[in-house]
Amino acid sequence: MESQNNGKTGINTPTAIIIGAVIIALGLAFGLKGNQNQKALNMAPDKKTDQVQDFSNQREKIINNLSAKAEQITGIPQNEFIACMQNPIHAEKVKNDSRFVSDEGTPYNIIKSEKYTLNIVGALPYKMISGIVNDMLNNPDFVVPDDFKNTLPNEELIIRSTDHVRGSLTAPITIFEYSDISCPFCKEFHPTLKKLIEEYPNDVAWVYRHHPLLDKHPIADLQAIATECAGALRGSDAFWELLDDLISG
């Protein structure tokens, strides 16, 4: 039956009932799907959280490995060493070591005497380093090249009570090394400074400071903290023993 129009546009009752039923059905369907999607969203794993947890687990494993290495090298029991590594004071010491060289690469070295101060970046060969030391000690005409002039503040270039030193504390020359234990160039340069101390035991003091480049070596801070704990728990010799072992690995 054709409905009466009466000059107005409208929807007859049966049609309205059908449309209403369709709208309700669609609403229920989308509502159910929305609930399912929400449940799925709630159940979906948080990838960022998983990554953080995975990284945390990796660091815990590394701490355990470092503590085992420390026990082997220094005799410090693992549980004592792990407790030390969890003490934030050592992480703060590592961070404080590099506060003036945060933008520099490694190894970064300052060679200082009463008369001269120069900076050297990179793993220079022994012949070059020993030549510089000889000139600083014996050559009255020695001039610091412009490229080697120091830019660090004077207060940074003193031996602090928290520093680790090889050689004579009264030596006329002090080498401040900022180093990353995982850095391949630091690994290459480490034996050079060891040899320099052996050759100049009364003339050179080697001050080791941490400068972990975490964007390149994400466990370098833990390695640095481990050496600090070795020193804190068993003294300077233990610090250098563990450092020598880790940086040669």
From TrEMBL:
Domain of life: Bacteria
Annotated InterPro entries: Thioredoxin-like_fold, Thioredoxin-like_sf
Segments crossing the lipid bilayer: 12-32
Residues in Thioredoxin-like fold domain copies: 162-246
Gene3D superfamilies noted in UniProt: Glutaredoxin
SUPFAM superfamilies recorded: Thioredoxin-like (SSF52833)
Keywords: Membrane, Transmembrane, Transmembrane helix
CDD domains: DsbA_family
Keyword Transmembrane helix carried by entry: yes
UniProt-recorded name of the protein: Thioredoxin-like fold domain-containing protein
Organism field: Candidatus Nomurabacteria bacterium RIFCSPLOWO2_01_FULL_36_10b
